[in-house]
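Task: sequence in, structure out. Protein: Fe/B12 periplasmic-binding domain-containing protein.
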Amino acid sequence: MRDSWQRIATSGGAALGRPEEAAELVADLETRLSEAVREHPRFAGRTYTFSQAHEAGALSVMRTPDDVTAALLEELGLTMSERATGLAGSEFSVRVGFEELEVVDADVALVNFYAEDLRDDLENNAVFQRLPVVRNGGYVPLTNEEFAPLRASTVLSIPVALDVMVPKLEEAVG
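Result:
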């Protein structure tokens, strides 16, 4: 089980002899997250998948909500799709070939690309182009720079992740 970003921040603050500063950072970020949820009620209950492309012809699809990236998305009100959570395996993600791309279909499909040619590979795939999430505007491509703060999920990276993700999610959910 992962530690929450709140626990990591307060533990780190205590270890550095700065518990008040850590508590203030946590409180400020919790307020910002609450504001984002309040300002974006359409996020609530929307399903998502999160995948990474790091080889041609396949995606690694996150299958467990017990992950820092999933935790942040769920704090914003989104829910990991049943297609993703239903994937077999014991790792946090599962490799899925392009012939099985329907598994990434949800209200929002977030995809991080390690290289631009991998993005072209996916976006030019006929199966991917036919997915409802793509046709309905819910596909959200992420560069490594956009993905990094989302993946770190610390008290210092989450504000950057919110700056990147909230506008993208707004556009994706319509």
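The mean pLDDT is 94.
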